[in-house]
C-alpha cells in the first residue's frame, strides 16, 4: 500500500494544479522538443534528441509520483482538531526559555512546509517536540546535533 499523506484542502488543490500543469503544458512541450530533434536527422548522434527523451522520462516519473500523492492524499478535517493542544495545523507561539526569544510557527503537513512563512513540517524535531503539549507547558526538544532546547508554549490557535 502506498503512503497516505495528510494535506489541507489548499494543499490538495495545489497538488492538483501542479499535476494539471505538468500534464497539459509540460508534456506537450517535451513532445514537441522530441519531434523537433527527430526532424534533425540521425538519432544515434543527436544530443538534443537524447536530452529531450531524458527530460520526458523525468517528467513522466514526476507525473506518476504526483498522481500517487493525489490518489492517496487525505484532507485533514479541521473541525475535529483540538485547539487546546498542539496538533497539525496549530499556530503555536513559543518562547525559548534560555534566551527569551519568541517565535510563532504553524505546524503543517510536510508537503506544505515553508520556513519563510513560518510553516514547519510536523516531521521536524521542533514540531515533534511540541505536538500534544498545551499552553504553559515546557517542550524539551533534542535537535539532531544533540543540543537540547526548551520552549514554553504561550499560545495555541487554529488558523
Descriptive notes:
There is one protein chain. With 159 residues, the protein is α/β, with parallel strands linked by helices. Helices cover 39% and strands 25% of the residues. The protein has 2 domains: 71 residues, Orthogonal Bundle (Helix Hairpins), CATH 1.10.287; 80 residues, Transcription elongation factor, GreA/GreB, C-terminal domain (Chitinase A, domain 3, Roll). The strands form 2 sheets. The protein has a 5-stranded mixed sheet. It starts with a strand and ends with a strand. The mean pLDDT is 89.
List descriptors.
single chain, 159 residues, alpha/beta, Chitinase A, domain 3, 2 domains, 3 helices, 7 strands, 39% helix, 25% strand, elongated, RNA polymerase binding, translation elongation factor activity, transcription, Transcription elongation factor GreA, DNA-binding
Termini Cα gap: 32 Å
- Major sheet details: 5 strands, mixed
Sequence stretches where pLDDT stays below 50 over 5 or more residues: none
CATH architecture of the largest domain: Roll
How many beta-strand segments? Answer: 7
| Structural class estimated from helices and strands | alpha/beta
What is the CATH class name of the largest domain? Alpha Beta
**Gross morphology:** elongated
| Share of β-strand residues | 15-25%
Question: What Rg do the Cα atoms give?
Answer: 22 Å
Following the backbone from N to C, one meets helices and strands in this order, namely EHHEEEEHEE
Helix content: 25-40%
At the fourth CATH level, what is the homologous superfamily of the largest domain? Transcription elongation factor, GreA/GreB, C-terminal domain
Residue-averaged pLDDT, rounded? 89
Number of domains: 2
The number of helical segments is: 3
Domain Transcription elongation factor GreA/GreB N-terminal: 6-75
Family: Belongs to the GreA/GreB family.
Domain Transcription elongation factor GreA/GreB C-terminal: 83-157
Organism: Algoriella xinjiangensis
